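Task 17 of the worksheet. Students: predict the tertiary structure of the chain below and write it out as C-alpha cells. Keep your answer in the requested format; marks are given for formatting as well as content.
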Amino acid sequence: MAVSIETLEKRIQKIKSQIGALGDLRPGALSQQYNVCGQPNCRCKATPPVKHGPYYQISFKWHGKSSSHFVREEDLAEVQQQLGNYRRLRELVDEWITLSAELSSLRLREKRRQLSDIKTPKSRISK
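Model answer:
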C-alpha cells in the first residue's frame, strides 16, 4: 500500500505535538536495593537476614558517563512517570525518523518524476 506525502506529514505533525505534551523526562532504569549495615547485632546479620530497604535507585548513562541516584520513596511515582515519558519520547523519535526517511524518499521520487515529465517531449500523433 502506497502512503502519500500528506499522510506522512500529518503523522509527523501528530508526533511533534505528542512530544510537546510529554512533560518531565528522565533517562535510566529504576531498581530496588536492600542493604546490610555494619552493626554486628542488627537484624540484617540474623539467620535468615532481614536486610534494610527497599531503597530505590535510578541508574543511567548520559554523554558516555554512568551515574546513579537514590530516589526517595515519596518521589517514586513522579520519577516513574518521568522514566515512562523518556521511554515514550524515544519511541516517538524513532517513529519520526522512520517516517521522515520514508517522506524524503517519496519527495525525491516525486521530484524525479516531475523532472522526467518536463524533459521527455510529448509524442504527437499525426493525422
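Marker's comment: The chain is about 45% helix and 20% strand. The mean pLDDT is 91.
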